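Researcher: Please translate sequence to structure tokens.
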Amino acid sequence: MLESRVADVPELWSNALKAYPHTSGKVREIYQISESSLLLVATDRISAYDWILPSLIPDKGRVLTGLSDFWFDRLGTAHHRISSDINEIASAVPELATDDSARDSLSGRSMLVKRLQIVPFECVVRGYLSGSGWREYKRDGKVCAIPLPTGLQESSRLPEPIFTPATKATSGHDENVSFDRMVNDIGTDLSEKLRSASIGVYTRASEWALQQGLILADTKFEWGLDPATGEIVLADEVLTPDSSRYWDASLYQPGGAQPSFDKQFVRDWLDQSGWDHSSTPPVLPADIVAKTRSKYVESFERVTRKPFPWQA
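Model: Translation complete:
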């Protein structure tokens, strides 16, 4: 049953969209629909350690799209979404109006968005000390050149959220950089606007998450500039398990890594599998796929307070 709901490569819809310029990311397929709009399609691919894995996580793309939809509606921040309704998308992409198979496969995992001038930095906000931030802190007591109090533990809550930009890597990991580096590259005014907007969105989102029993430990935003107005606009996915670290507040205990709503089962299994991280990754066992899917779905249901839409 689940196998029929998996979407990976664009063969499911590529014939209908073959006339549109197309690029692929680790998870998303991106089609240029017009001079001013793109179609983003979130597949069920999953990546780990900079590899796209050969296994798929059923409905993952629908979770990512559904959560982004929820946050775009809630945040009150200018964003790039035009529509995620498949009928409205089909109105903009006439080829879908007569291709039921393509339209059905795209439903729930697609978003028509404005084309923006994307800012070349990931705008990361951290409220807790984890991941690469924890590694930097252990090394020199700072994160992205921001001094932090001594004596913090892994997963400690920070005195206040910090803005820690990163350069966008075309391959491999993004590189954490200082705010001064960002200012040098894109200017003081834009950098300060992005810092303020990113911390503001993180703060509003973390307050909502905590009401749902979740800690939003950190997240990364992508922003773009509207070419017509110069306004900064929230882009890409937002506050999903792929771009954010969510923890169960009832299980939170600083002093070590926390269980999270993301690829944890996948990473743990890969680490224990004997895979060398440099050759083609192994196929994931069915139980790891099922557990990972369950975590993604749970994140959707807990954040939105709605049941996951099992039917597109």
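Researcher: Any highlights?
Model: DSSP finds nine helices and 17 strands in the chain.
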